[in-house]
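Task: encode each sequence below as structure tokens.

Item 1
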Amino acid sequence: MADTISAERRSRNMSRIRGRDTGPELRLRSLLHRAGFRFRLHAKDLPGKPDIVLPKYHTVIFVHGCFWHRHKGCRNATTPSTRAEFWQAKFDGNVDRDNRNRAALETAGWTVMTVWECELKADADRIVQQLSIEIREAA
């Protein structure tokens, strides 16, 4: 199926996709802060620049979008029908990088947690409650 918008418009849309300070990330940060957690953001000295770093608990949290990071079983993890090979290579690269970063952080002694966009949308309060328990247990 052909794209329904011009190449210029598609390019503009894609260029506006952000890698940090996304809606789900801002929501989780707000809820964690309200729960009493203090954290750093996007620590450049750690593999993968985790979205949220809780140094006191030696824990990092990645907030992953289901589409870009391929959340298994999620209806949002679709593959575009045009240029499917390109997209599959892109998605595979993202997942491989996520796995390498997770392994490097765990090897360095960090507890790594991942929050998926769809889960945060569905029940943010439950996610934060669960994270709070896991963070404190990991410390």
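Item 2
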Amino acid sequence: MRVTELLPPDDCRINEALSLALRVFDEVEAQIYPPSGREHFAAFVTGDELKKHIASGDMKIYICSESCTVIGMIAVQNKSHISLAFVDGEHRSTGVGKEIFERICEDLPESSFTVNAAPPAEMFYRKLGFIPTDMERFEDGIIYIPMIRKP
């Protein structure tokens, strides 16, 4: 397994990582959201706004790959907010997500990180040292738990 930061103009790998996020969301999380939540998430992942953030450097995408296939990804916005974090089904609970996050922490050692964790991902973030900052919320059809991890 290899963790790397994707840099524009690596659009092919960026699109592969975003496709993984959308696929895993549909497999794991979509059933807990109303249709409006699924639509909101898909619009975020496939929309031009996200691509603008990536192109400008406001959002960095880290991937874990195995045999040239993306098996996990985490997107960090403004060096402090995890916007997306997904691991392919057969690689979940094998340390892939943790390995990607550890690489991010190496690159940004002084950063505190926030995340709006989907309920199925709450325990993953707790294992990484995140703590909830508020109760579960519901916004734009998305259910999430605001969390933070300090350096």
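Check on item 2: The longest strand covers residues 69-77. The chain is about 40% helix and 30% strand.
End of task.
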